[in-house]
Amino acid sequence: MEGESHCAPVVADTRSVEMAFFPVLLLLLSVVQRGSSQDPDEDSLAVPRGCGWGLVRPYTLLCDLDSVWGVAVESAAAGGALAAILLGLIILCRLHHVSEAEKRSGVGPILLLLLGILGLFGLSFAYLIERDEQLCLLRRALWGLLFALCFSCLLVQGVRLRRLGRERRSPGGCALTGLALGLSAVQGIIAAEWLLLTVLREGRAACQYLPLDFSLACSYVLALLLAALGAASFALCGKTRQWRCNAIWLLSACLLSLLLWVAWVGFYLYGNAWLGRSPDWDDPALAIALVAQGWLLLLFHAVPEAHSCLRSPPQPSAPDYFDTSQAPSRMRETSFDEDIPLSHRQFPENQGYGFDENTAGLRSAGNHNGNTAPRPSAPFRSNVYQPTEMTMILNGGAVPSAPPTYTGRQLW
What we know:
The chain has a domain at about 70-310: Up-down Bundle (Rhopdopsin 7-helix transmembrane proteins), CATH 1.20.1070.10. It is mainly α. It is elongated and about 110 Å long. The protein has 13 helices and no strands. The model is unreliable at about 1-45, about 330-340 and about 345-355 (pLDDT under 50). This is G-protein coupled receptor family C group 5 member B isoform X2. Belongs to the G-protein coupled receptor 3 family. Keywords: Membrane, Receptor, Signal, Transmembrane, Transmembrane helix.
């Protein structure tokens, strides 16, 4: 009995140790079973280098270091989206400082353009994910619509700068924004009809389309870009030089966008087939085109236009009275007679006053009896002694000085 009582604590301690190590044993067995059931080659395919245990397919292009283009496009798109958001917030915060109507009219198209640029950067992430039916529908529907929105904003900015250069007044910001939305809605209708005809009517898969069909569906977008280029060219011919800098930035953005479109369409249609990379390099070409177009519009139009709208007007400088090259200002033309009534400053009265003064002078010259009687008071001209031509002739050509008793109210 005493032996059994001594063995009971030992048995209890052994059971507690077994219960403590049982979960650890199960975890080890599960890890060993997973390692024995999967091949190392399959692990490397499931989790590419650089992704770790976080992202799996179909999101591996976001972190795959073997496909460097995906990581580069992701970084550039994220940075561009952050820059567009910050620029939009700055414009909204400083909008109440913009008091000029010509500058406030351009705020609406700029904010709409920033929204389109943000959409371009966001759509580029859709090309970093493996294709499926819903994703292909999203790509085909938003591609032309976002580009049409951006190029419509460029077009209305060209119209605005043209009006400012010719008539020095601009349409309202709401009217320009509505025009841009209406022009971009046409491309939305074209994309919807294309999807209805190819996917629903003919029963094709959304991911199965010819590159030529994709390019032809964006022909309206190219027409908007050409129209924006023409409007920017006409804006340079305005009479006012104040807005020529804005027109030059707009023309640069349109020209670079046109070159970019020619480059990516040519590579998408013929470059991939010529290099033998037609199915593999289609998504990288489209993703790079999206990011490049977003940064181009952001740097060459959105930032300069926002700076022009938010810049405070220049303060008028004081005129330099010793600079003879300057045009005569209003202060130089100001006389001392501005505070005098108009009836006292008419030319016939000045002539009459001159005649009275000369007559009084002749009388005083003929009579040397020392009569110092005051002359008849003449109309008040100014507080400065102003001798007439006859007085200077009688004085021998010299300018006479005012008498000591001259108070400005009488002329001697």
